[in-house]
Specification:
Chain lengths: 695, 82
């Protein structure tokens, strides 16, 4: 069977994802474009006797070389030479959406325009003459309502029809005004006469890009025989344009493209109703109001968390009970010995702690998908951009920080993945590095344990203080990073506020499942491995018989732990951690916490010889710790601060590695956070001792 | 009466017609890609709590940008429109 490739392009918020989902269903693959962190989705479908590979290009407004998304989309189209490019266009926002379509036409790809959300456009009083639009542009136009699956079959018919023609590419020529056209023609002539043959790039398009000072195209032509000559000429023409028009060529080119589009729209769009305030506009009057906007923001975040925790409570406890059951069964049926210990302490406890978080994480992703798909996330960025800019971050950093646990209970794994919305690599890296300071769900059991033991009188206040402190540390660190290692200009905050939309259930589930699967796959394997390693480290070597001959039960277990590799490392580390008030038992717990912060509680339980301790029901352990003579509120508070700040867990590190594609930054994330944790804890503990606070 | 001002000087609810874009580099390109080109009508919809960023309506949709970036966009204030 013959296979063709179509590329799906379009502005963000034009409904591209909906079209992709409704074309490919759930049968699609997610990956990264080679070498960049831009997500690549593709799927295969059959239509008639044709197999169609649908590649989802990143959502873009333009095809310049400024952002990674735009470059990826452009490179894919020119280099992979798809048989057809399908441009999804928001019918209610035709003018701006056609800007991208025009650029595809200038490259010359076989193009189909999907006029999406025609129902919405009509309800807003716009009537679009699709036949006329198609004729004027010389491109097939398919009206559609992707959320309802309308127009999809027609689209595929047109795709098949267009692909069967196998036309040569026909770039269209738009006039950029007399003066600029002359310059473009001059450069085009030079390119055509030369031996410069750059695969599929049309000569005129190359000329335009050279005039626009497009770095990628400059690199492309530099090594040809006329490269130097061409660049010099382009430079001179560019200067000339700047001098005569007091504007840059790319600006004039954009203006003329829009001029062309405006004239097309004038002919095809008919306003059948006066413009009214849409419901979305009315909602926004309240939600991003100068005074009430921040209040609504707080309320919505609060609601989101309430929803996530309320709905995840039952499934989380169910899974925990399942693992408890597994533990009981294993304890009952298996003979005592190493294998049993490995399965119970290593695998069931370690993996169970992580798997039981899956419902929470799924629901968190679900809630985030609602915020994103409905359009509210963009408003959050709008409301908070000013504040975050002060700390060297970007409005879009908010999402990552909140998801990481900005309101206690998130997860840095999701947060780091959420930084993809940040375009500037430095702002993104800074956000990735500080997000793990937030109070993720795994830190909560630690706080719960220690607060229950030492701060019963002021539980809520301590919890609130920890939240404020985590934001404070994250923002201040961001500010320091951005003025030292990650120095660089702010990226402009230019963002569309899309109309509010009811998210589709299918879209939400696909979103949620994609990310959850990522988490399960990457996280599950690493956690399992680390759990086994930690188990082995705290089991071997076995103490010699004479050391444990007289004792049994919990005391014996404790003696074994202290003799093991983990115990010895814990003791060796005491030299370093003593100034923080941490003994070897806490050190072991903290080492376990490198794998996953929940492990701190279970490890404390083990080393304080309480046997298995359920991280959620830590009451007994807190009683025990409270009675320990060398514990006091100051030490507990220091430990909480340390846990808040020190190295992100392994799963987060794995995700950081994946997102930054750099071992160097991954290592940095681990080391610098631990150093900060150490310094902060040291200052707090020593100052507390000096002032005799909490002793 | 035509009065040329900077885009960020328009009050909430005021309209203007873009006359000139003085931004350069990436930002010039990005706002033009988004439809902020000479001759286009803009309306300031709202400003965030600290007065920045601002939200404008342009070509029928909502766009946000920072005051700093809006300052280089010159507009003709359209009088008498609320």
């Amino acid at each position: 069977m013959k296979e063709i490739t179509i590329a799906l392009a379009g502005n963000p918020n034009a409904g591209k994802t909906t079209v992709f989902n409704s074309l490919t269903g759930a049968h699609h693959h997610v990956g990264n474009y080679p070498g960049v962190t831009v997500e690549k989705k593709w799927g295969r479908i059959k239509h008639g006797d044709l197999r169609i590979k649908v590649v989802d290009l990143p959502g873009t407004y333009s095809l310049t070389a400024y952002s990674l998304e735009e470059l990826v989309a452009r490179d894919f189209v020119v280099e992979e030479h798809p048989d057809v490019v399908v441009d999804v266009v928001d019918a209610s926002n035709l003018e701006r959406n056609l800007y991208l379509a025009i650029q595809f036409m200038e490259i010359g790809v076989p193009l189909i325009i999907v006029l999406n959300m025609v129902d919405l456009a009509e309800s807003r009083g716009l009537k679009i003459d699709t036949t006329r639009l198609s004729k004027l542009l010389g491109v097939p136009v398919v009206p559609a309502v992707a959320t309802k699956g309308k127009g999809m079959k027609e689209l595929l018919d047109v795709v098949v029809n267009l692909a069967s023609k196998k036309d040569e590419w026909h770039p269209i020529n738009i006039s950029y005004g007399n003066e600029l056209d002359r310059h473009v023609d001059e450069l085009t002539g030079m390119i055509q006469k030369s031996s410069l043959k750059i695969d599929h790039y049309p000569p005129r398009w190359l000329a335009i890009k050279l005039l626009e000072q497009d770095e990628q195209v400059q690199k492309l032509v530099r090594n040809s025989d006329i490269g130097e000559d061409l660049l010099k000429r382009a430079d001179r023409l560019e200067r000339h344009v700047r001098y005569t028009f007091d504007d840059v060529p790319e600006g004039l080119i954009a203006d003329h493209r829009y001029g062309y589009i405006t004239s097309v729209c004038r002919e095809v769009v008919q306003r059948i109703m006066d413009e009214r305030l849409t419901l979305s506009d009315k909602v926004d009057k309240a939600l991003i109001n100068r005074t009430f906007g921040p209040l609504f923001l707080g309320g919505i975040i609060y609601l989101t968390y309430t929803f996530v925790f309320w709905t995840s409570e039952v499934p989380v406890s169910l899974i925990e009970r399942l693992f408890g059951l597994a533990r009981e069964v294993a304890t009952g049926v298996m003979p005592d010995g190493l294998i049993k210990s490995l399965i119970i302490n290593g695998i069931i406890n370690g993996v169970g702690g992580v798997i039981s978080f899956v419902p929470l994480i799924m629901l968190m992703f679900f809630a985030v998908a609602i915020l994103e798909d409905s359009g509210y996330m963009a408003r959050m960025a709008f409301l908070l951009d000013r504040l975050l800019r002060y700390f060297g971050l970007h409005g879009n950093s908010v999402l990552a920080m909140i998801v990481s646990g900005g309101i206690s209970g998130g997860c840095a794994v999701c947060g780091v993945m959420a930084t993809r919305t940040l375009k500037n690599p430095k702002e993104r890296l800074a956000t990735i590095l500080v997000s793990p300071f937030m109070n993720c769900g795994a830190k909560l059991p630690i706080y719960a344990l220690l607060i229950a033991a030492f701060f019963t009188a002021s539980e809520a206040r301590v919890m609130f203080a920890l939240t404020i402190l985590s934001w404070g540390f994250a923002l201040l660190t961001a500010r320091v990073l951005r003025s030292t290692l990650l120095k660089g200009p702010h990226t402009p905050f230019v963002m569309e506020l899309p109309p509010y939309r009811m998210p589709t259930l299918k879209g939400l589930f696909i979103h949620m499942w994609e990310r959850t699967w990522h988490y399960l796959k990457k996280a599950g394997t690493i956690i399992l491995l680390v759990s086994i390693i930690i188990w082995a480290m705290s089991t071997f070597p076995k103490p010699p018989e004479e050391l444990v001959s007289g004792i049994s039960g919990k005391e014996k277990a404790q003696a074994e732990v202290s003799y093991s590799v983990a115990g010895r490392i814990g003791k060796a580390l005491e030299k370093i951690t003593a100034p923080l008030g941490f003994d070897w038992r806490i050190n072991i717990a903290l080492m376990g916490g490198f794998a996953a912060k929940e492990v701190v509680v279970t490890s404390l339980g083990t080393v304080y010889s309480m046997g298995e301790v359920d991280p959620e029901a830590s009451g007994v352990l807190s009683e025990r710790i409270k009675r320990e003579p060398n514990w006091n509120p100051l030490k507990a508070f220091t430990l909480m601060l340390f846990c808040m700040l020190y190295a992100p867990c392994f799963v987060t590190l794995a995700v950081i590695r994946k997102e930054t594609e750099s071992w160097k930054w991954t290592g940095f994330a681990m080391v610098y956070a631990t150093v900060i944790a150490y310094v902060v804890s040291l200052v707090v503990y020593q100052a507390g001792r000096f002032l005799s606070i909490g002793m | 009466m035509m009065e040329v001002v900077r885009l960020n000087e328009l009050e909430i609810g005021e309209k203007g017609k873009i006359t000139r874009i003085r931004n350069r580099g990436e930002i010039s390109r990005r706002i033009r890609d988004m439809g902020v080109v000479p001759g286009t009508l803009v309306e300031v919809e709202t400003k965030a709590t600290l007065g920045d960023p601002i939200e404008i309506k342009v070509k029928g949709y909502h766009l946000t940008l920072r005051g700093h970036e809006a300052a280089d966009v010159e507009v003709e204030r359209i009088q008498g429109v609320k």
